[in-house]
């Protein structure tokens, strides 16, 4: 809310705010608000001659009520009328109300656009800035159509004031991001680029943001900006002619320097020798200043210097600059890993040919070094100095590209920094492997190879004992990792481990007896040895005796039941996140949204008002469920909302009656998200499947401040009942257990009934339980695939569809959807490398149905041919139909 000064005289607003703050209960606050809303409504309807001051006061009250979380459904026209006022405060409140409360599809947009046009043509800089801010805040396509041609003219006009130019550049940037097809620079391009030479630093900073965005899409059109950007960077960093009032804690214009370096990263190194020399001079100056003793002990000083240094690290110009790289690596490590102590001499002695700093991880405070050197990979040397491995594990989990990469990274971390790896880290990797069928075989193979190292850290032995005990059978077919080889490898570490680790290994041994009966005699001999039966530790002695007895007297079926595979862990917050929060406090791990992208902060950053929720937004990022979700787009503002939105994308805004299956197809290739959402209720879903069994968690969120009474759900599968009373802003959970008896077509129907404000609400939804959820991925060689493909050649065994691409043909997206289907994506199998082939087995209680899939994209025609063969025709057709909808 804008500050209300004594000169404004809006005493009624001040009294109303005071009354709200003095309310002793929520009911009292609602009562006072309803009274005020009735009064404002009567004023707007009854008094047609309200002056500007009164309109401003009442609109301010409505805005305040809205910010408290209450819905506002009137007052919009009065706010639009304020736009025609010649008084700044009245026009400001009008624009503020419109920016916050008016929907981009509102019928009032045309009236608003007319008022904005009048202010833009008024040449009053204050009014022009208000209008530009409103356009940027609303950012609708209709506004882009109306003003995309006008704003560039204002931006480059010679008589436009600096403050208006700055606002115009940022407004144009907002419109370009929202509707890039409507913002065409054309004749304005060269004049916009020359804003880099503007005398006003604010104009230059805003112009760089605009040019960076435009040049990333049209680099050739804006390539003249390189020389101007280098010149401006030189004036800031070398000659310091632009310092003036823009020095921040002894660092000249750090934000401008960062933006200039980011702009230069959009282009290859300049070919002009003079320009390139000037750029290298700038970078050397930045590095030299970074090594100077700090001029201030304030954290703001080091933050400003480090921000510029990060951008220098991301620049490509340094790839071939020899020893200078070593200086940058040393500085970068000190910043990225909490200024840890690094023995630089260990690196300086190496003959480093090339060092690349990955831009993605550079901005995530993560280091990736790939070197050719005489004495080994410096990454090993660097990691051995890590004192905050927990943060590294958090970053590995947060930015996991896929589960195999995550397993590799954590095992490598344990190998290098074992003493610093807490239990939470290896607990987490176990949890991920248990819950993900597609990574279990890979994890078993990887940990088996890691255990073969002569010096193996005890934490690695723990992980190896657990994973091989559960999934060692997945690699037992290879003679090099036969059951006895696995057992001997684990037992060779036994006597070097502590008591808790030995206890874990004994449990792994008894699991081996269940998995591999041929190892029974060898393992029983170990269990009955004196070192076990007469062990001085009571826990180890008891385990040895009980496991020996169990393996001796239990039948095969009993043993299999007692020692069956561990069930999936319930979805919950990452244990390493919880550990970090415990160490750092409530604000230690936060996730923000910036320009539509998630960014994680690991070192505080203030209280964000709640922990990040678990979600799985996409198969290409955050696979382990750490990022908080994006806000629900298109959802109406909720009243008194205390509900944390735990899902990554909005559900459809559906009516409160009738079957809603709009969101059904969105879950064919994913398991988590928002299934349904309207003004009152949000229903989120998280599900997991294993063979022919599934478990689904439904989250019912009350988006209002009023209770849901008689809340009831009915479903034709096994469920746990849900609480009949859902408080305002609260969320309740329901667990559904699913078993696939045979192949099916129709999905379960969920009926939800509750009373809101006395009115009965009835919602019916199709639950996203589709036949492909029971796929088990199957790896196959090329010869086996085509042999089986030929066997399934009967017409009734094949389903085929030829259809047009509706979502683009991005390779990574296609792979992600095929993996999300549940099948195994077979690489290098099809003779045509452009085609995709997959294999899987649908597990039902009655039978197993093998399926083979072939997807043939035609990029030129933007078409697909999808062929699916299985031993059951209904399965082939159903899976083919489901998958075709995804492309």
From TrEMBL:
Belongs to the adaptor complexes large subunit family. Residues 588-617 are annotated as: Disordered. The gene is AP2A1. Its main location: membrane. The keyword Transport applies. This is AP-2 complex subunit alpha. It is a peripheral membrane protein. GO terms for cellular component: AP-2 adaptor complex. Keywords: Coated pit, Endocytosis, Membrane, Protein transport, Transport. It is found in: Membrane, Coated pit. InterPro entries: Adaptor_Complx_Large_Subunit, AP2_complex_asu, ARM-like, ARM-type_fold, Clathrin/coatomer_adapt-like_N, Clathrin_a-adaptin_app_sub_C, Clathrin_a/b/g-adaptin_app_Ig, Clathrin_app_Ig-like_sf. Pfam families: Adaptin_N, Alpha_adaptin_C, Alpha_adaptinC2. Residues 665-768 form the Clathrin adaptor alpha/beta/gamma-adaptin appendage Ig-like subdomain domain. One of its GO terms (molecular function) is clathrin adaptor activity. Adaptor protein complex 2 (AP-2) is a heterotetramer composed of two large adaptins (alpha-type subunit AP2A1 or AP2A2 and beta-type subunit AP2B1), a medium adaptin (mu-type subunit AP2M1) and a small adaptin (sigma-type subunit AP2S1). Component of the adaptor protein complex 2 (AP-2). Adaptor protein complexes function in protein transport via transport vesicles in different membrane traffic pathways. Adaptor protein complexes are vesicle coat components and appear to be involved in cargo selection and vesicle formation. AP-2 is involved in clathrin-dependent endocytosis in which cargo proteins are incorporated into vesicles surrounded by clathrin (clathrin-coated vesicles, CCVs) which are destined for fusion with the early endosome. A 1,2-diacyl-sn-glycero-3-phospho-(1D-myo-inositol-3,4,5-trisphosphate) binds at residues 11-12, 43, 53, 57-61. GO terms for biological process: clathrin-dependent endocytosis; intracellular protein transport.
